[in-house]
Amino acid sequence: MLAAPWKAAGFTYNKYLAIAARVIRKSLKEEPRLKAERRGPLELKFSKWENGKQGEGQNLNKSS
User: How large is the greatest C-alpha to C-alpha distance in the chain, in angstroms?
Assistant: First the structure.
């Protein structure tokens, strides 16, 4: 059985989706591309909770 192409390339599924979304946004005509680019950026943070208290948050965004 063959591995998924994204897995064989060494990407996580989320990284694969991010790359695919970026390629699709860049292929759009100018007006739809600008609208899609405004929706693109997002912030992802992680906090570990212990004993009902939230720990320090870590920013999980990484520049690609």
Answer: 51
pTM: 0.50
What size, in residues, is the chain? Answer: 64
Structure tokens at 9: 């390339």
Residue showing tokens 């920013």? 59
Is the pLDDT reported for residue 64 higher than 60?
no
Name the β-bridge partners of 52.
none
**Token couple for 54:** 């939230």
Side-chain half-sphere exposure of 10, counting CA atoms within 13 A: 0
How far apart CA 34 and CA 15 sit, in angstroms, is 22
